[in-house]
Design brief:
Blueprint (H helix, E strand, L loop, with lengths): L1 E9 L1 E6 L11 H6 L1 E5 L8 H8 L5 E6 L2 H9 L4 E5 H10 L2 E4 L8 E8 L6 H16 L1
Parallel strand pairs: 3-4, 3-5
Antiparallel strand pairs: 1-7, 2-5, 2-6
Length: 142
């Protein structure tokens, strides 16, 4: 009884403050693991996606701060020497308005799809159709 519509595919970037003393526009694995990380959990607790990928390679990063949302991490990162790895669209948007830079992380992190979902009971509702179309059009321009 659910419908879904793909809105966009995203990947990840790492963010650090501009003029970070340990990062010069490129990250290698050694530097990435040496840095102190900020991590966002949108649900629950436990190792994040990056930590799981690193663990499969026998590696571990140093997470010193956890937040419930990646948007708060940009403010923390911009005024500290922490690094955060967040969705790339958010990273680029935040870098345009804050004193942070985006860097490609030195690990392969799978991309992810953002979709909108709705119940069949609202599938033919005109107001809901308008809203879904508006969201779709907005996401297609980003």
């Amino acid at each position: 009884g659910l419908y879904q519509q793909k809105l966009f595919v995203d990947d990840f970037l790492s963010i650090v403050r501009a003029n970070h003393p340990l990062v010069q526009n490129k990250l290698n694995m050694k530097k990435y693991l040496e840095l102190s990380h900020a991590l966002a959990f949108t649900q629950g607790k436990g190792p994040g996606l990056v930590d799981k990928i690193l663990a499969k390679q026998g590696l571990k990063r140093k997470v010193v701060l956890q937040s419930h949302h990646f948007l708060t991490l940009s403010y923390i990162v911009s005024s500290s020497d922490l690094i955060a790895t967040i969705p790339s669209r958010a990273a680029r948007f935040l870098a345009s308005s804050q004193d942070i830079i985006c860097l490609k992380p030195p690990i392969k992190i799978p991309s992810f799809t953002i979709s909108q979902f709705w119940h069949e009971s609202s599938h033919n509702d005109q107001a809901n159709q308008w809203l879904r179309n508006s969201v779709y059009q907005l996401c297609s321009r980003i």
